[in-house]
Amino acid sequence: MLDYLPVEKDAFYAMDRGYVDFGRLYVMHQQGAFFVVRAKDNLKCKRLYSNPKHKETGVRADQIITLVTQKSKKGYPEQLRRISFVEKERNRRLVFLTNNFEVPAETVAAVYKQRWQVELFFKWIKQTCGSSRSSARRSMP
Question: What is the longest distance spanned by two Cα atoms in the chain?
């Protein structure tokens, strides 16, 4: 579906790991959009530079990287930003990739967190509507 999504310049698109396709992300980048995506655990990259981190905000690393595997580098030949963040509520470490080098690292994490809120909302709708439909079916003769 990412290929059919109209991309707006300067807009942020937040996606989960399942959408890590560096070629598609690079197309979004070339169209002037920004993305925030969770990195896969097996990401191979080379750190070029580390920005100052703010541990009190949950940021553990804010790095400028390049991809190193041939397929990934061919798909996304430019630099990316890698942010390691600890979610304090669950004490869980999340790693994000973005093509935005300007916003604070904690803002990148907040963009992704908002994506998760949308996902929880859709889950609630499915559960609510699904249980209503099941109840209606059971009450029908």
Answer: 68
